[in-house]
Amino acid sequence: MAADSLSSNVSEAMSLPDETTIKFYLQAFLPMISETVDCNILLMRLNVLNSAERKEIFNLNKSGGKQAEATRRFLEKILENDEPGIYRELHDVLQEDYQRIANVLRFGHIPKDQRSKERTLQLFMKEIVNRLNPRDVLPSLFSEGVIIKSEYEQIKAEIDKGPTSTAVMSLVFSIPCHIEKWYEVFLICLYENDSEDLAEIIDKDFIEDYKNKKVSKQGKYVKKKGKCKDLQLNVDQMETEESENVVSYFQEADSSGDLGAIPNFEEYSISSDTYGLSMPTARGEPDGQLAGLPSHESPSSSTAAQSSSVTMETVTMECHSENTERKLLLHEGSEEMQVSFTPDANQYLQGPLQNNHRQEKNGLKDKVEDASDTELNLEIDENEDESEDTEMEDQVIKLREYQKELARPALEGKNVIIVAPTGSGKTMVALRIIQEHITRKRGREIPKVIFLVNQVALANQQGDACKKHLTTYNTQVISGEVQRNMKVSLKDFIDKRNILVVTAQVLLDALVYKEIESITRFSLMIFDECHHCHAKHTFNQIMSYYMDVKLANSTDRLSLPQIVGLTASVGVGKSRNIAQAKTHIKKLMANLDAEEISTVCNNIGELSEYVSVPTEEIMTVEKRENDVFGQSITETMNKIEDIMEHCDALQKVENPEQYMAVLKAPASKGSDQYTQWASKLWKETAKIREPDVRRFINPCRNHLQIYNETLIIYNDARTRDAIDYMKQEISVWKQSAIMDKNEQCLQALYERLEKPEFVERVQNLPNPKLQALGKMIIKGFKGKEPADSRGIIFVKTRNLAKAITAWLKDTPDLKSLNPIEFVGSNTSGGKAMTKAEQVDALKYFRDGKHKLIVATSVAEEGLDISQCNLVIRYDHVTNEIAMVQSRGRGRAQDSQYMVLAEEGKGTAEKEELNMIREIMMRKAIIQLQQDIASNPGKVKEELKQHQDDEQLTRRLEAKNRKGRLMRMGDFELRCFKCDEYICMSTDIKKVQNAHHVVVLDDFEDRVKITKTGSRRVIDETIQFVGRLNCKKCGNDMGTVGIHRNLEFPVIKISSFIIVDTNSRQSTCTKWNKAPFEVLALTNDDFKMLLDKRGEDPAL
């Protein structure tokens, strides 16, 4: 009777939670379970699928490397069928061979040190492969349930077939899958089977502890078969503690039970160690018997088993069946997560919590809330390193239904481009993907996420989001400025942080200079504003490293990171129809190796509730009525053009007719077209070998550029702002002018424009566009609370941003908005903003100190200012992507998007064309999604073909460039203006991968150095204290910089003509376009300069 009572109580204690709970944990841990469980076991033992489904999954499982996918497909079928009893049946099947997974389904239990133990195994993989004879430990591991029968047979066959290393690796990969104490069992098997040295290499402390516990003062003997001798176990204290635990357990299960009546208590093989491992005698299984395990943790007292919360002590029982002898782990008391469920547990099944469980080295803690409002709150105690970025509590990311739809492919591990409107919360989708990715990867490999952005301001914004919502993980923001100021690099953080938010150029530089050996160091890469991943953009250059690994067909391709792209608009390029638009989008997919494009299809109604769509308005205005100043500038430009065309020196040019065609200027002055022509003229002039011709053409071209920019400002801003710009630029030109006959003529033309009576007559003439802009701003802010309103005005150039900001500050009705300009930082001179100034401007804009920003395109993408309710494009329209991006800056309810366009200029028509292209893009995406669904193989082939073509193009370009550099050797750098020799390409070195300095002791013989008396601090590595000019012609060549207390000439490449060994001449505007490589400045370079300069560090 007592035995029956005990059996009843044990049965009750072992009863499963309801099917809803098992289903919940199955959904929550689906990725981890899919990668652990062998699908063949499910196919053999679960008869829940029809024959067609079983065949489909069986064939998938046969495909190389598809086991996890097959298992996942099988489990998803179970979730779809949802038949009564199916989840209990699944649990029973897993209980036999996957005890660890069965516990996950019952209790949501993941041992706290699971990940660290697996990492330890990976760390010593080489030693294990080299030292372990798998024949020695295979029987014991099978006997203890660490590996299952199919794995035992497979590994045994691999041992017979050879090489042994293959069998050892298969064994190591199988070990962590089945029981929770796999690590301890594995080490003891090594120790007891003549591999003590290997066991101590892996975990010396554990083995020492185990050896100390083996010697027993009194107790029983456990007979070990095979090579090992009889062992005595020290069970004095442990048996006492274990007995107390068992008594406590059975008393709670049935308080009326009589323990004295329990027949043959030792038949249940209660473990004499606190690891919960039994010590069976082998019956019908391969030889192998384990001795008791040492205790690192003291047992905790048990509590009553409840329907809503199960808490029991560890009791290991040996269960016997006809075919096998297995141990059944009922529960592991103090270390697992305990979750309280309400009767309606279905409330969790579709929520974002289903994937939020984490495997962390410090374990999972539970927080049981009130039954009326039950919620899982997984708290993780991370003690990673000294980072100040990490908060010590977990944040559960909850997504809206449309966000779940966007995230679905990425959560399944696919490479995907996510396309959703601005303001829809793509960042939150990305954070959820990161969260799930780290959860899924931990325990199998080290997850490493890199979030790539284009701008420092975006890096800070996305970094703040990661730190706020992913507090469990360490996040680091890294930009070029951070690297220089902190004197660190990306490689310094890659092993210390889970999430890196990085400006793209930083990662590209790290790959180029081998600071990071491979793109495979990352497990997930997120590209913010991924529509840029075309041609020579930094994103695409980074992806070229990915493609090289993928297309090499090496084993490294299995370690490639998952790719996720985020954008509001993929664009259509120059497409004229939907077919061409699809081709454009497929190229973007190929560049990002994307399998799908994810858009909101099923939850559009919900999306519209959360995304504010601004009202759109295009306003046209007339030109100035009184255009005296503009006409005067145009006349001056015509005269300069005429002077160039009739230059006698042109007859010296080798092919004067060809060059005359280049000199033909566009009729539309004050336009982008004219700016492009001036740039082309600069490059063509550099090819002329006659220095007299270049010396004549260059000042003319320089003045034409100044006047063209003056007209651009004049057209869109006040006349006085245009005059101020013109005066400033001409003043700079005068500093380096040699005032020959030609330059005296140019000076005379300018003096007519700066006459006081002329300036007085034109500087206050009204500009209709400014008047219309003022009305737009007042209308946009009308009726809005000042504290809750913000506005952005997008303009064409930095100079125009400065002029419009000045006008706003001088306008009584608008100056209270405290406007500020926001321009890019990647330029030389004082017109750019520093990174710190950009960050401050955005902060003050968010805080409301500045209500209005006047910005160039740098502010179009990604910047999230929720209060922004007014966006104006000021007579400047580019493509449909820029339209979508700039319109998306209006995040507030009832926001307005306005385009102000001058009549006859074509701006309004371009904006309407962009709207048409946006519609074309949407249709193309829908058709492409249909193509992927109906014929994925064909689309995949097309994407692969594009990848192959692009890789071939890159290789040919690299080969040509390398061959060109080898043939050309060193290059001469000559003054662009007068052709004077300045230095050789080998005399140039790089400081902090950003500044190009000359390390030549006779540089001063050809270049005039002027100290300004003030210091301009760019970053902590260099300060600018002067300027450089050609001694012969005064051409501006750069600045004087102080680096490590030593003065250097810092030159700009646009001031030089580059001449190769064959006397071919070229120019470039940026250093990365130079036809030669520039090496980093070394300590040897410093020593050489110090030796030559003596005690004086100055130039």
Structural description of this entry:
The protein is α/β, with parallel strands linked by helices and 1099 residues long. Among the domains are: 2-107, Death Domain, Fas (Orthogonal Bundle), CATH 1.10.533; 401-606, Rossmann fold; 628-762, phosphoenolpyruvate carboxylase, domain 3 (Up-down Bundle), CATH 1.20.1320.30; 768-909, 3-Layer(aba) Sandwich (Rossmann fold), CATH 3.40.50; 969-1093, RIG-I-like receptor, C-terminal regulatory domain (Metal Binding Protein, Guanine Nucleotide Exchange Factor, Chain A). Helix content is 46%, strand content 13%. It contains 39 helices and 28 strands. The protein has a 7-stranded parallel beta sheet. The protein has a 6-stranded parallel beta sheet with strand order 12-17-16-13-15-14, with helices on both faces. The model is unreliable at 1-14 and 216-394 (pLDDT under 50).
Labels describing this entry:
RNA helicase; globular; phosphoprotein; hydrolase; cytoplasm; Rossmann fold; 28 strands; seven-stranded parallel beta sheet; six-stranded parallel beta sheet; single chain; 46% helix; CARD_dom; disordered N terminus; phosphoenolpyruvate carboxylase, domain 3; alpha/beta; Death Domain, Fas; 1099 residues
**Portion in helices:** 40-55%
DSSP strand count: 28
Counted by DSSP, the helix tally is 39
CATH architecture of the domain at 401-606: 3-Layer(aba) Sandwich
**What's the shape?**
globular
- Strand percentage lies at 5-15%
**What's the Cα radius of gyration?**
37 Å
In CATH, the homologous superfamily of the domain at 401-606 goes by the name P-loop containing nucleotide triphosphate hydrolases
CATH class of the domain at 401-606: Alpha Beta
Oligomer: single chain
Based on secondary structure, the structural category is alpha/beta
Here the CATH topology of the domain at 401-606 equals Rossmann fold
Unreliable parts: 1-14, 216-394
Mean pLDDT: 77
**Largest sheet properties:** 7 strands, parallel
Strand line-up of the largest beta sheet: 7-8-6-9-10-5-11
CA(first)-CA(last) distance: 103 Å
